[in-house]
Amino acid sequence: MPLSKSDRRHRIHNRIRRKIKGTPVRPRLAVYRSNKAIYCQLIDDSKGLTLASASSNEEGVSSEGTKSDVAKQVGIRLAEKASAANISTVVFDRGGYLFHGRVKALAEGAREGGLKF
Questions:
Q1: How many C-beta neighbours within 10 Å does residue 93 have?
Q2: For 42-88, what is each residue's pLDDT tens digit?
Q3: What is the DSSP-derived secondary structure letter of residue 92?
Q4: Taking a C-beta distance cutoff of 8 angstroms, is the pair 51, 35 a contact?
Q5: Rounded distance, CA 66 to CA 78, Å?
Q6: DSSP string for residues in 27-74
Q7: CB contact at 8 A, 38 and 67
Q8: Sheet holding 38-44, edge to edge
Q9: Are residues 116 and 88 in contact, defined by beta-carbon separation less than 8 angstroms?
Q10: Of 44, 5, 21, whose CA–CA distance to 93 is shortest?
Q11: CA of 84: how far to CAs of 51, 80, 87, 105, 114, in Å?
C-alpha cells in the first residue's frame, strides 16, 4: 500500500532529523507549514527548549499578499527575535517539505534578517 502524503513527509523529516541537531549556540530552525499558516521555531535539542518562535498568526505579521510574502515576513520576524536572544547562526530543518515556495521564502526572510545558515 502506498504511503500517504503526510506519512511520506514524516519519513523524510525523520531522515533529516537523524542528521541535524540543535545546540544552544546553533539551534535548529524548524519549519511547519499548514494550508493556511506557516510556523517556525528555534529549538535547542540538547535541553528540548524552544528559544524563539514566529508564525503567520502573530500580531504584526501582515496577511496582505501571497502566502510566500507572508512566509518571508515570518522569517524576518524570527530573525529579529533570534538577534534579541543573541543567536546568529542556525541549522535549517525544512521539516520534510521541499526547499521551495513558502519554505524557501521563510529561509530567505531569515537570512535577510541576519541569521546565518
A1: 24
A2: 999 999 999 999 999 998 888 889 999 999 999 999 999 999 999 99
A3: E
A4: no
A5: 19
A6: -EEEEEE-SS-EEEEEEETTTTEEEEEEETTSTT----S-HHHHHHHH
A7: yes
A8: 49-55, 38-44, 28-33, 91-93
A9: yes
A10: 21
A11: 11, 6, 8, 22, 11
Sign of CA dihedral 30, 72, 100, 67: positive
Q: Answer yes or no: are the C-beta atoms of 72 and 64 closer than 8 Å.
A: no
What number is the average pLDDT over the span 18-44?
95
What the block records as the C-alpha cell of 31 is 519549519
List of domains in the chain:
5-112 (3.30.420.100)
